[in-house]
Amino acid sequence: MNMTTLFPTYNRFPFEIISGSGVTITDQTGKQYLDLTSGIGVCNLGYNVKQLNEAVTAQLGQIWHTSNLYENHLQEAVAEKLVQGEDKVVFFCNSGTEANEAALKLARKATGKTKILSFNHSFHGRSTGSLSVTGNEQIKEGFGELLSDVTFMPYNDFQSLQAITEDYAAVIVEVVQGEGGMTAGEADWLEALDTECKDKGVLLIIDEVQSGMGRTGKLFAYQHYAMDPDIVTSAKGLANGIPVGAMIGKKELASAFSAGAHGTTFGGNPLAMAAANQVLTILDDEFLEAVTQKAALFWYYLEKDLANLAVVESLSGKGLMIGIHLAPELPVGNVIQALHQEGVLTLSAHGNTLRLLPPLVIKGADLIEASQKIKQVLQMSMVHQ
Ligand SMILES: Cc1ncc(COP(=O)(O)O)c(C=O)c1O
């Protein structure tokens, strides 16, 4: 390892990303990579995007910070685009973790109850509250007692719904579990979950931090289903890389977050809002339809190219949020590094899963090439075992 003055919270690959353009990333040696990561689901519109650069640069020259003590027309503009005409209101913060933290606090305050139901293999963040509702025991180790009134149930399991009672303040769920293994919620189950929450007077929080902002072909993944969440959280792709988070809640919850009930110094700052406003302008129906078509193309090629490879156990996910589940004898880390050699950037997720989150602006030809390179690398890896 190189000499470092950083906490070793990340195992870093031994190269640095210096620049990006479209879906191409360049490292410090000049080597270029096809990006299938978007950061980690952040730069959904790719890199060095003219409209975003212009919007942020214009705002930079005007003002880059104001406190939340003054009116903010950019926050209003972004909020209006996020609520899509529904009777909802928005709180801006700086990350997915913060958005979930706000959601948990709001649910508790609005209902006067404290219990939260979450799911195994979920990921909602690393702060004390959001980690408490994260269904991964390994990343909780060593931190002592977290929030105690959280229950975890199996995902995509109808029996889990029986655990939802009037005692709960909220259920928090990802429509597609990302870090936990790229598992798509099944339509019937998600809709039954929504119904169960309504029947029991329990708030439904949908975490769209990874699955939102067009990733599955809708602005939010829950919009594929008959679901009506009380609270939705967003971050990652919302400002294409400028830190931002948002909690969107039904208007009837607004009084629980009255002045002084919650807050943030940086949340909703003009730079992030200028970027988010532009991102949401770009994510129109035509753009989302194109994502759906590209996703169909990519799934077609992946299913065809990987079908006969013994090391591929299955594919999972939704839209351009895809997991390739590898047999245990081929560690996903080796595959990621072999793909680096071939000039392709990919990610991992729980369960020896190769995770693909390409920028949504990627062209069909790049997706076909990506599928072929993944096939080649998996074939070579099998030979070298
Ligand atoms: C579904 C989900 N929720 C929350 C988070 C946490 O977001 P952040 O890292 O912006 O705090 C993530 C990050 O990966 C996520 O995927």
TrEMBL record:
<dbReference type="InterPro" id="IPR005814">
    <property type="entry name" value="Aminotrans_3"/>
</dbReference>
<comment type="pathway">
    <text>Amino-acid biosynthesis.</text>
</comment>
<dbReference type="InterPro" id="IPR050103">
    <property type="entry name" value="Class-III_PLP-dep_AT"/>
</dbReference>
<protein>
    <submittedName>
        <fullName>Acetylornithine transaminase</fullName>
        <ecNumber>2.6.1.11</ecNumber>
    </submittedName>
</protein>
<dbReference type="GO" id="GO:0003992">
    <property type="term" value="F:N2-acetyl-L-ornithine:2-oxoglutarate 5-aminotransferase activity"/>
</dbReference>
<dbReference type="InterPro" id="IPR049704">
    <property type="entry name" value="Aminotrans_3_PPA_site"/>
</dbReference>
<dbReference type="InterPro" id="IPR004636">
    <property type="entry name" value="AcOrn/SuccOrn_fam"/>
</dbReference>
<keyword id="KW-0663">Pyridoxal phosphate</keyword>
<dbReference type="InterPro" id="IPR015424">
    <property type="entry name" value="PyrdxlP-dep_Trfase"/>
</dbReference>
<dbReference type="InterPro" id="IPR015422">
    <property type="entry name" value="PyrdxlP-dep_Trfase_small"/>
</dbReference>
<comment type="similarity">
    <text>Belongs to the class-III pyridoxal-phosphate-dependent aminotransferase family.</text>
</comment>
<keyword id="KW-0032">Aminotransferase</keyword>
<dbReference type="InterPro" id="IPR015421">
    <property type="entry name" value="PyrdxlP-dep_Trfase_major"/>
</dbReference>
<keyword id="KW-0028">Amino-acid biosynthesis</keyword>
<keyword id="KW-0808">Transferase</keyword>
<dbReference type="Pfam" id="PF00202">
    <property type="entry name" value="Aminotran_3"/>
</dbReference>
